[in-house]
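Section 5: illustrative case.
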């Protein structure tokens, strides 16, 4: 059976270090899983509750200044069949156009996490 939570979330961008953060509000992580330029945070109930994307401008192929203003977003993360799947939905304004970004990040797990689904939306 899959565990599910829907919660309020927070998003932030560290311009100087080019790190984009998404996280569930009021859920503390207990461990992290690192791969490529991404860190996934997992809480004590084994829900994915956050992520950081390092070199975010390169990862999303956008200028750093564009990531300073993300007016709408949603962060979804889940574990199924020993795979992490993270879906980001966000808008940015680039060259006076609103661009919708929908990256899907998938990674096979080397550790065991139970099936779960988490959706975080802006506070």
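Designed sequence:
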């Amino acid at each position: 059976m899959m565990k599910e939570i829907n919660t309020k979330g927070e998003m932030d961008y560290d311009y100087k270090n080019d790190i984009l953060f998404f996280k569930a509000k009021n859920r503390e992580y207990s461990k992290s899983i690192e791969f490529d330029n991404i860190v996934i945070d997992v809480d004590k109930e084994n829900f994915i509750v956050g992520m950081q994307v390092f070199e975010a401008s390169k990862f999303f192929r956008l200028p750093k200044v564009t990531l300073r203003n993300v007016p709408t977003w949603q962060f979804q993360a889940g574990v199924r069949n020993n795979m992490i799947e993270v879906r980001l939905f966000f808008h940015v304004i680039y060259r006076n156009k609103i661009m919708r970004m929908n990256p899907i990040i998938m990674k096979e797990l080397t550790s065991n996490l139970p099936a779960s689904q988490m959706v975080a939306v802006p506070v």
